[in-house]
Amino acid sequence: MRAPQLALTGLFALACATACGTDQPVRASAAPPSSFPALDVETVMAGLDHPWDVVTAPDGTLLTGERSGRFVALRPGGQPTDVAADQTDLFASGETGLMSIALANDFDSSRKLLTCQGFQSGDTKDVRVQTWTVDDAWTNLTRTGTLIDGFPINSGRHGGCRLLPMDDGTMYIGVGDSARPTVPQDLGSLGGKVLRIDANTGRPAAGNPFPDSPIFTVGHRNVQGLALRPGTESIFAVEQGSSRDDEVNLLRSGGNYGWKPDRNPDRYDESVPMTDPERVPGAIGAVWSSGPSTIATAGGTFVDGDAWGDWNGALAVGVLKGQELLLLRLSDDGNSVADEVSPTELDGTVGRIRSVAAQPDGSLLLTTDNGSDDKVLRVTPRAS
């Protein structure tokens, strides 16, 4: 399904006084503070090629997927094995291919999972959310349908896509802008947006800000991560900047996050600010920004567990260009960052980090994105 043409409205004129974060980011110190726990880093899977995501099933099986379309499962006590899947219509080019993976809320009974991936068949080329079922032995994935389609695609640049299922049956989807200048501010396009849909039907979720549209927020460049803060209803988007200003944004229904690279509508102008209140009235400022240079932020999740000490509840962000794991300790209201740290155990030691997934035991699962012997890693805080 595709979004109808709608005009931009005054819903974007949200008060920056309550939404904007700090003007200057707090940059990480050379060494973590003494209160930060030591981390154990274990290789869980190796020999992968650009794994974009990893999920954990209720039976303990880990499933990851390579951007080229390959699925790999690791069952408890077993060895990594390929999971067969028909990917003959996969569009894998540049930054696009098999990307985010999510398990349905009723996976135990339905064996249903979802992927966000590039698609090409005949004259149709887009990014879409596909639904699958997997057999009990984790040997075969069967495509069962398309939940939502029509996310714009060009060469494959800025085709990022992240899925975040919610307990209420809705799902948020972060979508890249396909490196096209008018897309992020166009309510007739699903690109450069965060969407909110019914996870069973793909229809716009009840209570969305724009009638009959799946669009929840606009004005994004390339959303790479979505994370729900535990104990709250606050959802944070991790977004890649242009020549500066990677961002973490607190999502607000109907909010415009200010990316408008169309000073010349025929040219994708990356010299404009990531958040541009002069050209986008009411644009919402970032909670955190990388500042004058980018580090290429990717997936994000919130750490959970007493072993994290003072950093329990911090937002953990995978970093590609900067080759680190970044932890951000947010203010209680989520509008600013009190402190940040990059643990030495992952500072340049494993290369580019794409996805970060919190686990029930307090550990994190990471995927690296180096293109040569990529890994799924388990990172566990060492209790003091």
Quick structural gist:
With 384 residues, the protein is mostly beta strands.
Structure description:
This protein is mainly β and 384 residues long. The chain has a domain at 11-48 and 160-381: Neuraminidase (6 Propeller), CATH 2.120.10. The chain contains two helices and 24 strands. The strands form six sheets. It has a four-stranded antiparallel sheet, with no helix packed on it. A four-stranded antiparallel sheet has the order 2-3-4-5, with no helix packed on it. Strands 6-7-8-9 form a four-stranded antiparallel sheet. The longest helix has 4 residues, at 16-19. The protein is globular. Residues 1-30 have low confidence and may be disordered.
Topology, element by element:
Layout: H1 16-19, E1 39-48, E2 51-56, E3 62-66, E4 71-74, E5 81-83, E6 98-103, H2 107-110, E7 112-121, E8 124-134, E9 141-151, E10 161-165, E11 170-175, E12 193-198, E13 215-217, E14 223-228, E15 235-239, E16 247-250, E17 288-289, E18 297-302, E19 315-319, E20 324-330, E21 337-341, E22 353-358, E23 364-368, E24 374-381
What distinguishing features does this structure have?
Neuraminidase, four-stranded antiparallel beta sheet, 6-blade_b-propeller_TolB-like, mainly beta, 384 residues, single chain
What name does CATH use for the topology of the domain at 11-48 and 160-381?
Neuraminidase
Rg computed from alpha carbons, rounded to a whole number of angstroms: 19 Å
Q: What is the helix content? A: under 10%
Number-wise, the strands total: 24
Spatial gap, N to C terminus: 51 Å
Biggest sheet record: 4 strands, antiparallel
SSE order, one letter for each helix or strand: HEEEEEEHEEEEEEEEEEEEEEEEEE
CATH class of the domain at 11-48 and 160-381: Mainly Beta
Instruction: Give the percentage of residues in beta strands.
Output: 35-45%
Question: Can you tell me the residue ranges where pLDDT is under 50 for at least 5 consecutive residues?
Answer: 1-30
